[in-house]
Amino acid sequence: MKKWYVALISILLFISLIGCQSKNEKPLTFSGKGDQWSAKVKVDSTEDKKENKSIKLNYLGNDLDSVGEFEFKLDAPNGQWGMGAIKLDKEGNFEGESDMNTSEKISKSDQLVLHIEWNNQSEEIVLENK
Known about the structure:
Elements: H1 2-20, E1 28-33, E2 37-45, E3 50-59, E4 70-76, E5 79-86, E6 93-101, E7 111-118, E8 121-129
Antiparallel strand pairs: 1-2, 1-8, 2-3, 3-6, 4-5, 4-7, 7-8
């Protein structure tokens, strides 16, 4: 009878340990579109309060050469991220990413606000999880 109790307790302990392990969550994808730009941001959270954020920007305007160097800033509930003095490729796209430590994770119900500045112009785009 004692062996049965020990086996049962061992199984329950094993199950509880497996249940307590944090699982990698699926990356969240936020997207939005403005008059001159469209954006997609992918946020991949890890177990140790780190996030990998990747961004894809696409210039929607007609005069690609007029953009020149530009910068963006992404406001999220858990902090800001940005890049400056960057350029588009020949198709009008830009891709970048960064790893950062965070105090809290971004959730799928959050909204991110993207600020883009180029050639004395600016645009603000609200990005939502799709």
